[in-house]
Structures are given as C-alpha cells and as structure tokens.
Amino acid sequence: MRRNNMRKNKIKVLITDDSLLFRNMLKNQLSQDSDIEVVGLAADPVEAMEKIKTLNPDIVTLDIEMPIMDGITFIKKLMAERPTKVVLVSSMNISVFDALQSGALDFVRKPTATYGLEAFIKELKTKIKVASIAKLISYDLKTKDTEVPKKEITKLRKTSTKIIAIGASTGGTEAILKVIKELPKTTPPILITQHMPPGFTKMYADRLNRICTMEVREATNAMRLKPGLALVAPGDKHMELKKDKEGYYVRCREGEKVSGHCPSVDVLFDSVAEVAGKNSVGIILTGMGRDGASGLMKMKEAGALTIGQDEKTSVVYGMPMVAYNIGAVEIQLPIENISTTLIRHLNK
C-alpha cells in the first residue's frame, strides 16, 4: 500500500525539446529520482499540447526555441486553454523573461562548458519539485517592454536617504517588476537579490531598465548608490551594502552559498541591517525555502520597516512565510499594495 501511495504522489513530467538525444537524456536522468515520473516526451509544442490533454502532466519542461511554434507562443496558448506549470530548460536567452511573464514558473539553463550536466540535473530536479507546489499566478503585466512609457506615475513628496532591499526566488522576476515598475526616479536606492544564474541577472537587469522608471543595472563591485538607481546582485556573487565618507556603495564578492544560495538574500539583508539600520526598508517576496528570513529579522531589530508578500499573491509562499512566522515581517501585503505602502512610508 505504501508503495502505491508513493507512486501515486510522484510528480508527472512531460519533457518537450526538439533534440531526441536531449529528450532521452532528460528522461533517463529525471527517472532516477523517486519523486519524479516522466510520463511522456514531445519534440515540439504541437505534440506537447496533444500529450498534455491525454497525459495530464503536473509539470512541462520546455525549451524556448522550438520548431513549428516558439516556446512563448506555446506558453500563452497553454495558459489560455489548459493552464499547466512550465519549467523552462533553455540556453542563455533574454526571451526567458518574456516566457516567465507569459506564465512559466521558473527556468534552468542548459549545460555548458562551465555548467556541467550533474549541476544542471540537480537544479532541474529541484526546480521541478518547487514548481509542483507553486501556484500559477498572473501579475497582469501585459505591456511589452518597448511600449511602457517612462513617466513618473507615483510621486514622492520629499527626498529620502533610506536604502531599500528586496529579496526573492521562484516567481520573483515578475513580483519584483510589479513592485518597482512605477516607482519614480526620486526613489531611494534599491538593492535586489533574486536567485538566478550568472549571465541571466545581467539580462534581467537590462529588461527591468527598459520597463521601469528607475535606472536598473546589474551590480558591479564598488558601484556607488544614488536615488533612482536599482542594482541587481550578479548571479554568482553575494552583494553587500557598504558605506564610507562618500556614501553608500555595494561590495560584490564570490563566496560559499549562504542559506543555500549565492547570491543570498540573507547576506544582503544582514549587511543592510548593519550598515543602514533604521534608515532602511526590507521587502521579502515569493520564493522557496528560508533565505532572507533571518536577515529580515536583523533589519527589523535594527529599526527598519519590513514588508512581506502575502500567501495569496505568492507563487511560492516559502521565504515570506518563514519570515512572517519568526516575526520578521512588520507588514504583510498582497504584491499590488507593496509599492504604494513603500511610497507612503518614504513620504512620512
């Protein structure tokens, strides 16, 4: 009986990739995990759509660059006709972020010379398991990058010397955009740690820069902070807040994973608590695990305002839940209310 229950609870996965060799490799590797059952293979989105109807998978793995129909078009069609959780398996491609906006839950980069098969399979298995408990949530960000006018919709009545720190993981790319998209150019500096591989963080920062009113850049070591600037931690380095006689700047450094990640939200929040203290705001958004919870507690104890995303609007209510449960969250809010609450706080 126990064996049947285990099998019944396996995560059913449909693999979609135009390479027969890659499909079979994924099937062989994923099938070795006792929590995952590969129920089918598809060579293109049209075949995938038909198999989704008959196999009813929990997760679809998908490459963006596909024959017959591109991955983004397929995701939009899938979400409209038969919403299903999608984990992207793709080479480094800025279209990943369009796919996430269209409804994909997460992504894993394909193996490269510097990112081997073993690390890839381990990450993919983790992302599949996280996606299996995630929620399909649309933040209603339908406007294309090139169509968003850079006008200051939200006003700050006065300047502020505060530092804003944001941490997120699964579901965070769109949640962060929802928070910072319309913040004005007079907004205090924002530091962002989003769990993401190297290379993709640069593309993500560039995408945010095109969409947001604020200037958004991938952080580099010793970069100075200024109002209207948001920095995204590079994908393979921890980012910390520092201060000298000239003002605030960031330190980006290599290091071991902290709370399971590099970059780590805890590393960022710890540094903000130490350097900026009550002169800061900490925001923890959707994501699996507990990274950021202890750091947010340190920020709160130092006198900072701390905000956590609520369960209803979180793709994965993990990081903000842990932070809330340990008492690190002062205000818990749906994602759509965080930016206005932030502005209201800065205007006090």
Describe the structure.
The protein has 348 residues and is an alpha/beta fold. It has 2 domains: 132 residues, 3-Layer(aba) Sandwich (Rossmann fold), CATH 3.40.50; 202 residues, Methylesterase CheB, C-terminal domain (Rossmann fold, 3-Layer(aba) Sandwich). The strands form 3 sheets. A 7-stranded parallel sheet has the order 8-9-7-6-12-13-14, with helices on both faces. Strands 2-1-3-4-5 form a 5-stranded parallel sheet, with helices on both faces. Strand 1, helix 2 and strand 2 form a beta-alpha-beta unit. Helix 7 packs parallel to helix 12.
Q: How would you sum up the major sheet?
A: 7 strands, parallel
Q: Got a strand count?
A: 14
Write down the domain tally.
Answer: 2
* Integer average pLDDT: 91
Instruction: Indicate the proportion of strand residues.
Output: 15-25%
CATH superfamily of the largest domain: Methylesterase CheB, C-terminal domain
* Tertiary shape: elongated
User: What is the helical fraction, as a range of percent?
Assistant: 25-40%
Strand order of the largest sheet: 8-9-7-6-12-13-14
Query: Segments where pLDDT lies below 50 for 5+ residues?
Result: 1-7, 141-153
Number of helices: 12
Q: What structural category arises from helix and sheet content?
A: alpha/beta
CATH architecture of the largest domain: 3-Layer(aba) Sandwich
* CATH fold naming of the largest domain: Rossmann fold
Distance between the first and last residues' Cα: 61 Å
What is the C-level CATH assignment of the largest domain? Alpha Beta
Radius of gyration equals: 20 Å
Spell the H/E element sequence: HEHEHEHEHEHEHEHEEEEHEHEHEH
